Amino acid sequence: xxxxxxxxxxxxxxxxxxxxxxxxxxxxxxxxxxxxxxxxxxxxxxxxxxxxxxxxxxxxxxxxxxxxxxxxxxxxxxxxxxxxxxxxxxxxxxxxxxxxxxxxxxxxxxxxxxxxxxxxxxxxxxxxxxxxxxxxxxxxxxxxxxxxxxxxx
Length: 153
Description:
By secondary structure, this protein is α+β, with helices and mostly antiparallel strands. It contains six helices and five strands, in the order H-E-H-E-E-E-E-H-H-H-H. Helix 3 (about 65-80) packs across helix 4 and helix 4 crosses helix 6. The longest helix is centred in the middle third of the chain and has 17 residues, at about 65-80. The chain is globular and about 55 Å long.
């Protein structure tokens, strides 16, 4: 096994995904105060024009897709989990921003491949409340309709 993969398994990475302004923000004439560069998010105060940079291991601009996020950070974590390593993905953000789809859909894809089936993989998704767990379960059932995958709450 490569040293790089081992290092990635043993470290915490922090990523941020910047969302686009929503309809309410746009219609209210709000100003976008966030800009991104690789590994840097800059927030600018529109009244003083002063800005502050924040560094992260990964920065995903508004143009990034769920697939971009998954391929950059989720794929290796899910792969390691399926190999038996203890892993965690903590996704925090506003409702409807793709947290569930961004990690649940690729996980479902991996779980439905023949190679994964042969190893009888299991996934545990922990949520802080029963309500959120029910939402993930509902999404899982919708995304896996017609497959042999099972879920329990």
